[in-house]
Each structure stands twice: as structure tokens, then as C-alpha cells.
Design a protein that fits this description.
The protein has about 170 residues and is mainly α. The chain is about 50% helix and about 0% strand.
């Protein structure tokens, strides 16, 4: 299950205070070209004229680019195989990619979810990052991702926080 990709993109843009040219550069880091016109359409709400549906592939490129921007490229041996690309097809993968990009540990994740308005235990949180099929794996619901993104907004933009419904 995946929260609407456009919504994730809009909320991340606001939380991280990114301008369009910065978002285009982030897509480019992941070797994905996107025009300002297409980006503007992706950032519109679904009821707005000109709205374009953000695909899982586009969201994945953005999150991969965000990891590269925030953490830098991964150092690998010259003869190593390239890592397979992981699509952000579930909220769990989105959370994992954001955890990597923002260099968050367990305590930081719990703090952001709590700032967003939800109390979660360490065990519940660790279940979100387990491999699918593991007996303790739990799917990350839309609400948990919303709480996380809301907490990220409150942490990064404490003076600008608006209601999260403004981004739905």
C-alpha cells in the first residue's frame, strides 16, 4: 500500500523547503530528467486543472536523488555490481528511503512520528523496517507516513507549520 505519490512529493517539498529548481536538480542526481512544467503538474492537487499523477517510478527517482543530495553517492569497489533500483512501491520503502536520506536513527524517527501526533513504540517502528515476509514485518499505513511527514515539517519549519490537510 502506498500513499498517493503526489501527496508525498508535495509534503516533502514543503517540509524540506525545496524550490522547483532544487527538486529538478534532485531528480537529475538520480539520472531522471524532469521539466519545470511537469514538476508543477505533479505538485498540483488532484482537483486542480493541469494535475498530473505522480508515478511510483517518479517518486522513487526523487527519493533516490534526495539520498544522493543529503548523503552523497555510495562508495563501492570498482568491480562491484551496481545495486538494483528499489521502487518506492510501499509506504515502508518510502520511510526507509527517507530514513537513509535524512540519516535518522530509531530515536529520531520516533521523535518525528511523535511530533506529528502519534505515539509509537520502538518495536512497532522496527517492524516497519523488517523485510517483507519476516514474521514481525508490519505494513506502514498512510497515517503513520502522514504523522512522520507532519513531524518532519514541524521539526524543519517550526515557525511555518500549517495544517497537514492543506497538503492533501
Amino acid at each position: 500500500m502506498l500513499m498517493q505519490c503526489n501527496l508525498v512529493l508535495r509534503r516533502l517539498r514543503y517540509a524540506l523547503d525545496l524550490r522547483n529548481h532544487e527538486m529538478i536538480a534532485i531528480f537529475k542526481l538520480a539520472e531522471h530528467e524532469i521539466t519545470d512544467e511537469v514538476l508543477r503538474a505533479l505538485l498540483l492537487r488532484d482537483q486542480d486543472d493541469g494535475f498530473a499523477e505522480c508515478s511510483v517510478d517518479q517518486l522513487s527517482y526523487f527519493l533516490d536523488g534526495l539520498i544522493l543530495k543529503m548523503r552523497g553517492a555510495r562508495e563501492t569497489a570498482p568491480d562491484a555490481k551496481p545495486m538494483p533500483r528499489v521502487l518506492a512501491a510501499t509506504n515502508n520503502v518510502v520511510m526507509r528511503k527517507l530514513r537513509i536520506a535524512l540519516d535518522l536513527r530509531e530515536e529520531g524517527l520516533l521523535e518525528l512520528v511523535e511530533l506529528g501526533g502519534f505515539k509509537m513504540s520502538k518495536h512497532e517502528l522496527s517492524a516497519l523496517f523488517r523485510k517483507e515476509g519476516h514474521k514481525h514485518y508490519r505494513a506502514c499505513g498512510d497515517q503513520v507516513l502522514r504523522y512522520f511527514l507532519g513531524g518532519l515539517t514541524k521539526k524543519r519549519r517550526p515557525d511555518d507549520v500549517v495544517e497537514l490537510e492543506d497538503f492533501s
